[in-house]
Amino acid sequence: GNSVTQMEGPVTLSEEAFLTINCTYTATGYPSLFWYVQYPGEGLQLLLKATKADDKGSNKGFEATYRKETTSFHLEKGSVQVSDSAVYFCALSFYNNNDMRFGAGTRLTVKP
Amino acid sequence: DAGITQSPRHKVTETGTPVTLRCHQTENHRYMYWYRQDPGHGLRLIHYSYGVKDTDKGEVSDGYSVSRSKTEDFLLTLESATSSQTSVYFCASRDRDPYGYTFGSGTRLTVV
Q1: Is the model more confident about A62 or about A96?
Q2: Is B17 exposed, middle or buried, given 0-12, 13-18 or 19+ CB atoms closer than 10 A?
Q3: Is residue B101 predicted with pLDDT exceeding 70?
Q4: Which of A26, A41, A81, B76 has its CA 20 to 30 A from that of B18?
Q5: Would an 8 Å CB–CB cutoff place B45 in contact with chain A?
Q6: Do B42 and A100 count as a contact with CB atoms less than 8 A apart?
Q7: Does the CB of A69 have a partner CB in chain B at under 8 Å?
């Protein structure tokens, strides 16, 4: 079946450090890929997405590139801030399919 | 404010009792979803609705039922709560954009 695997956390970084959170997927066909962010006490918010191979999604300094050859969609940010502390979820979905699949989530803590 | 509201935000109930969680959206979205969030599993789809009185099962539907009598309301019922249903429950909605999910802030349910 379709599934997403994320690197386990928690991840703790100092402010201005480089961030990578790994995400790989298993799917029949070519899904769209997403990163969602969840701040404490809140629901998930879409951070970025990519709908086809080699697309790069970007938002708020975060980037991820859809790599079909490695079935990956790793999240990166060049310089993290304390305000980036949150749980990050990788997800996949097919167009007009009502079953979005999420990874287990990676908790990021950024220290001043 | 527009968006999704879930009620209650927190609930503690006893094993064997019925529980109903409510999701209310003001976006006039056609599609609505119920997910549960558990450590190590991310979000998993319980049930979804693609219109008034139109619902279907998700990945983890056993022990849950749903109803949608109005566009804006989507109810999740645990007919007889069990400890394995202790979780955080999220509602989401979307309109025609297959990737434009809006999430509520969640309901933390504890079954003792």
Answers
A1: A62
A2: exposed
A3: yes
A4: A41
A5: yes
A6: no
A7: no
